[in-house]
């Protein structure tokens, strides 16, 4: 059969694999005589066609004997399954987990001596009794620009058993690289903070290849998650509580110096905190209620104010307070907030970005690292200790 070749294809449903082979013969046309040899190309795909209850954290593997893999694709809803090909192109293995309760089809194209053949395998992953989902990524407002100190806060729907496995698939990719780390605040929340502030005017990509991650106890990641975060201008406010003024800078340029009246300091709760704060959000109007007091108690108050910008979870805001304009810039008479004039309060309210930096000095009370977004109160080395990846 000199000069001719026959190719055949067979698919078998053996346990754990799909097999494809091509067979043929060739002749020696040199005139020295007739000779022949046989080649056999075999492709094995695991899991096998028709397999069910495949573990989502299992591996898809494609192997070829007497040939090379030209292309391997995996189709299925949800997670995009990627893989790596060996240097000699004889083995392909998936490099990520699969979505639970999902049907996948693997298509492999193998070649030998200029000929190619295709093998496929269709299988289904198990339907996990419990799944782990990301229910929120903050910042999360469409079109929002955040400040250079902004954290990335990820919240889950249930306690995370295997924190290291989950943290491994959380990826933060800024356009302008900077070192950062995750810290677990509790078993449902992890926060990313950088070593130094983000560079302004850039986008940050957050990706979580969570689908199929084995969290332990029969719990698997339900779905991938992604988000894009936009960092706006570098807005940093520096204020001295004892001097009753703060100065706002944007991208290194001074915008405005604002007089204020801070906490009167008669009690700890009425003392404005010093330290590195982040602006957390704004409300207009906002109702201020005395902490730890109820109607009828000495010192109880309930006041509605305008243009509130929060900078801690212990009730600290910048806000408008017309009644204290006369002492703003010279005395501290508030219950812990920074009282501003109506015009200055509105201006600050209008320009603020969540994650803007507010550095305050001049009081004997330091903001706690876990009071609101006081994360910059902790050194970066301390912050990294909260990571599950050592």
UniProtKB/TrEMBL annotation:
Active site, per annotation: 319 (proton donor/acceptor), 337 (nucleophile)
Pathway: Cell wall biogenesis; peptidoglycan biosynthesis
Signal peptide extent: 1-22
Species of provenance: Actinomadura sediminis
Domain of life according to the entry: Bacteria
Entry keyword set: Acyltransferase, Cell shape, Cell wall biogenesis/degradation, Peptidoglycan synthesis, Signal, Transferase
Stored Pfam families: Big_10, YkuD
Stored InterPro entries: Big_10 (IPR041280), LD-transpeptidase (IPR050979), LD_TPept_cat_dom (IPR005490), Transpep_catalytic_dom (IPR038063)
Name the record gives this protein: Ig-like domain-containing protein
All copies of domain L,D-TPase catalytic, residue ranges: 235-361
């Amino acid at each position: 059969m000199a000069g001719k070749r026959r190719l055949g294809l067979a698919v078998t449903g053996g346990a754990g694999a799909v097999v494809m082979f091509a067979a043929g013969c060739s002749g020696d046309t040199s005139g020295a005589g007739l000779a022949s040899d046989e080649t056999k190309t075999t492709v094995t795909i695991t899991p096998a066609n028709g397999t069910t209850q495949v573990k989502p954290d299992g591996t898809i593997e494609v192997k070829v004997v007497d040939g090379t893999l030209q292309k391997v694709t995996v189709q299925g809803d949800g997670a995009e399954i990627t893989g790596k090909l060996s240097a000699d192109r004889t083995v392909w293995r998936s490099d990520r987990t699969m979505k639970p309760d999902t049907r996948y089809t693997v298509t492999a194209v193998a070649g030998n001596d200029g000929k190619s053949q295709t093998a496929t395998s269709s299988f289904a992953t198990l339907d996990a009794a419990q799944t782990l989902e990301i229910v929120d990524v903050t910042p999360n407002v469409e079109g929002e620009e955040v400040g250079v100190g902004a954290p990335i806060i990820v919240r889950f729907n249930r306690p995370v058993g295997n924190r290291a496995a989950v943290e491994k698939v959380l990826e933060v990719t800024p356009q302008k690289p900077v070192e950062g780390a995750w810290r677990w605040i509790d078993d449902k929340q992890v926060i990313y903070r950088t070593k130094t502030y983000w560079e302004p005017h850039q986008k940050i990509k957050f990706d979580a290849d969570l689908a199929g991650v084995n969290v332990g106890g029969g719990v698997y990641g339900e779905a991938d998650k992604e988000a894009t975060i936009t960092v706006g201008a570098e807005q940093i406010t520096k204020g001295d509580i004892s001097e009753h003024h703060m100065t706002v800078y944007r991208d290194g340029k001074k915008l405005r110096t604002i007089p204020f009246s801070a906490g009167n300091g008669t009690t700890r709760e009425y003392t404005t905190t010093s330290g590195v704060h982040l602006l957390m959000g704004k409300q207009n109007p906002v109702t201020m209620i005395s902490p730890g007091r109820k109607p009828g108690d000495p010192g109880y108050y309930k006041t509605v104010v305008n243009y509130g910008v929060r900078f801690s979870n212990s009730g600290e805001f910048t806000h408008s307070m017309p009644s204290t304009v006369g002492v703003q810039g010279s005395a501290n008479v508030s219950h812990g907030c920074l009282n501003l004039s109506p015009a200055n309060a509105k201006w600050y309210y209008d320009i603020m970005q969540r994650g803007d930096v507010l550095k305050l000095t001049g009081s004997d009370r330091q903001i706690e690292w876990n009071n609101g977004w006081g994360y910059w109160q902790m050194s970066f080395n301390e912050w990294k200790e909260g990571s599950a990846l050592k």
